[in-house]
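Q: Got a minute? One more chain.
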Amino acid sequence: MILDTNQRIGDAWRHRWDSLRLFTPARYSSLPGMAFPASAWSYPTKDQVADYLETYAARFQLPVRTSTRVDRLAREGDRYLVVAGDRRWEANQVVVASGAYQRPRIPAFAADLDLSIVQLDADRYRNRSQLADGGILVVGAGNTGAEIALEAAGDRRQVWLSGRDTGEESPFRVGSVADRLLTPPFWFVISRVLTVDTRIGRRLRHKGQAMGWPLVRVKAKDLTAAGIRRVPRTVGVREGHPVLKDGRGLEVANVVWCTGFASDFGWIDLRVLGSDGRPVHDRGVVASQPGCTSSGCSSSPP
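A: Always. Here it is, folded:
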């Protein structure tokens, strides 16, 4: 049985911003047994991904229960207890596949911004029609921030992109001939070499989590051409307006927080979390929590 908090399969994708696309071609975006229904080298939209998941579940008759939010996962004797409101299930094995994007990570000083400033985070932003007239500060210069800033600049308003420069993944345009030639070997390297099983893979993963991943689709010259101003990190508030690391204050009408997400595993009532609040596991398997005593199977948080 698969429990999903959303009303419809794929809603986790449908509820992202309107122009979002995958960063991987359709040929690398398929689930087992069903090819992604798009041109191999196209980059699917978030709605295409959502519809694909819904069709996939229907085709393979997956036992999905939607509108079911799990409140607690615990042990009860030799089995797991899953609680969702007034409903309870027992299971020998549990797979936690809730992802890492449950809670937008917004700095505490955001509460000190003037009430007239429109504040959105990447989870609530859909398109620029939500923004008020006036300047826009996008905080967080990773892929999400760069793409939203570029979209926001489309109606010629002043846009500032705040944050450290994460660099660019490749000098080539996504979808170009060079990109198509280099993607297969690149995909092999990141899926077979740069993994958590290798020292270099673990090092790059740590660096990416700490510094942000390089820009994939948007290039620095795209931001410049759109008139977007690159500025240092946003570190506080002064007289109701955001303040940058260099001491400058910006009088803007909008702030879009693209500062990442925090995982939320507070509903897991098991000794599986490390000091960083994430499950301690080996390739998904939590050795301290056997899935069932008879066969030695294990629970598998991501």
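A: The radius of gyration is 22 Å.
Q: Perfect, thanks.
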